[in-house]
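re: the backbone from monday

yeah here it is again, tokenized this time
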């Protein structure tokens, strides 16, 4: 017993110029077809770049959040840079990148407020 699949998107039985619509098979992807080597080469860097941008957005958010408590002189600028890089690389997590950027700026604002209050970069919560 054999199974025959009929591809209705291509008409091979007619002559090339006998009224066949030339747009019939365009845009239709054969699920069993092997992708072109060029498509494979282009898809892999885009996926990796997208994952990297999403990772940068999450890292920016986490560093900005932690920077509110400790090491805000280091973590604040890092959160800002990572948030900007994630936005430039078109992350799917734009909200997280914007929050990381805002938290990085807040880190620097907290640092500036504490430096003016204490008169030194080294500060303590207890007093």
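seq for it, each position gets an aa:
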């Amino acid at each position: 017993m054999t199974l025959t699949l009929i591809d209705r998107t291509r008409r091979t039985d007619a002559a090339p110029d006998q009224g066949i619509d030339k747009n019939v098979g365009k845009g239709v992807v054969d699920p069993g077809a092997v992708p072109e080597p060029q498509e494979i080469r282009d898809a892999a860097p885009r996926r990796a770049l997208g994952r990297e941008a999403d990772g940068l957005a999450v890292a920016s958010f986490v560093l900005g959040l932690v920077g509110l408590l400790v090491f805000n002189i280091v973590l604040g600028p890092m959160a800002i840079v990572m948030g900007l890089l994630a936005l430039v690389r078109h992350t799917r997590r734009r909200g997280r990148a914007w929050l990381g950027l805002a938290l990085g700026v807040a880190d620097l604002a907290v640092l500036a407020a504490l430096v003016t209050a204490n008169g030194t970069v080294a500060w303590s919560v207890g007093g």
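Residues 11 and 20 are 8 Å apart (CA to CA). The two ends are 86 Å apart (CA to CA).
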